[in-house]
Specification:
Order of helices and strands: EEEHEEEHEHEHHEHEHEHEHEEHEHE
Number of strands: 16
Largest sheet: 7 strands, mixed
Strand content: 15-25%
Radius of gyration: 20 Å
CATH architecture of the largest domain: Alpha-Beta Complex
Low-confidence stretches: none
Mean pLDDT: 96
CATH class of the largest domain: Alpha Beta
CATH superfamily of the largest domain: Medium-chain alcohol dehydrogenases, catalytic domain
Helix content: 25-40%
Structural class: alpha/beta
Length: 351
């Protein structure tokens, strides 16, 4: 089979590999739709997870099952399936402790294009199929379905980590595709004021559509001052879905004592994050920072799919650029790398 791979740090290309073998609990799928991610960009061009050689990229896909292992109960060849970007080993200790995303070690539930070949190929392997696949609902938009792999659950996890409750005043820092889904999740949770931080007009417009009450443009001045002014004081909760290692400095400064920060931003470089000592209450302000890789798994995919099918969320609105054919994974990824201002998320549909 052919796949689009990270050849080494800073280099990509098409390679030929053997079709992966199917274990007794596993499935082999072929893609129906694929989506490049900023994490793919960080992996290749920042070397964020270390040097990888001839590793097929990609972790966002909708697929069709072509083979299942002898012990798989709920899926068969021909089934169309949602596939989470995070595919834990569900019998691991970490999974039983409630941290499935770390089954096998820290972040080891993230297998595609991290510990094994990803989904940008003619075929790809899914471990623990009964736990990590979900049936694709009939008539679901493939763009929305592909966003359920990563963008939707990651954005929602930021809201879970921040523990957003009804009536909370909330800041969402970064309104790319993940941050936009955090805005949608905060609205579903019943947040009152939602301050969405970003500068791109298409993202800002979609954030308002998803439930943001205010857009805070960092190009217009310090976001801490802007949000403190708009909110007449610190906010209750913050989701960090963009920015860099210094973003926590801003978040701590605009957060009330006893507030929580949920971080789902992938910090691809640097050695440390900055936390302001005094504004953190000299370490005693009860300002919590919780950072987490989103949980994967079938149940989560099914629940998020219900929200799509009932019209509660509209992740298909994230798709701004559509390509056709596996060969167009490459230009779609380069689009994510270059980030033109009209981009939110590209989608690649198979012929």
């Amino acid at each position: 089979m052919k796949g689009f791979a990270m050849l080494k740090i800073g280099a990509t290309g098409w390679i030929e590999k053997e079709i992966p073998a199917c274990g007794p609990l596993d499935a082999i799928c072929k893609p129906l739709a694929l989506a490049p991610c900023t994490s793919d960009v960080h992996t290749v061009w920042a070397g964020a997870i270390g040097d990888r050689r001839d590793m097929i990229l990609g972790h966002e896909a909708v697929g069709e099952v072509v083979e299942v292992g002898a012990l798989v109960k709920d899926f068969k060849p021909g089934d169309k399936v949602l596939i989470s970007a995070i595919t834990p080993d569900w019998n691991a200790y970490a999974s039983q402790e409630g941290y499935s995303m770390h089954s096998g070690g820290m972040l080891a539930g993230w297998k595609f294009s991290n510990f094994k070949d990803g989904v940008f190929a003619e075929y790809f392997h899914v471990n623990d199929a009964d736990g990590n696949l979900a049936h694709l609902p009939e008539n679901m938009d493939l763009g929305a379905a592909c966003m359920i792999a990563d963008m939707v659950p990651t954005g929602f996890h930021g809201v879970e980590l921040a523990d957003i409750q009804y009536g909370d005043n909330v800041a969402v820092i970064g309104i790319g595709p993940v941050g936009l889904m955090s805005v949608a999740a905060a609205a579903i949770r019943g947040a009152a004021n939602i301050y969405a931080v970003g500068s791109r007009k298409n993202c800002a417009d979609l954030a308002l559509e998803f439930g943001a009450t205010h857009i805070v443009n960092y190009r217009g001045g310090d976001i801490v001052e802007q949000i403190l002014d708009l909110n007449h004081g610190p906010v209750d909760k913050i989701v960090v879905a963009g920015g860099n290692n210094d973003t926590f400095d801003q978040a701590i400064r605009m957060l009330k004592a006893g507030g929580k920060i949920g971080n789902v931003n992938y910090l691809g470089d640097g050695d440390y994050v900055k936390i302001p000592r005094v504004e953190w209450g000299c370490g005693m302000g009860h300002k919590q920072i919780l950072g987490g890789l989103m949980p994967g798994g079938r149940l989560r995919s099914e629940k998020l799919a219900r929200l799509v099918m009932t019209g509660r969320i509209h992740p298909e609105r994230l798709i701004t650029h559509t390509f056709r054919g596996l060969e167009n994974v490459e230009p779609a990824l380069m689009l994510m790398k270059d980030k033109p201002r009209d981009l939110i998320k590209p989608l690649v549909l198979m012929d």
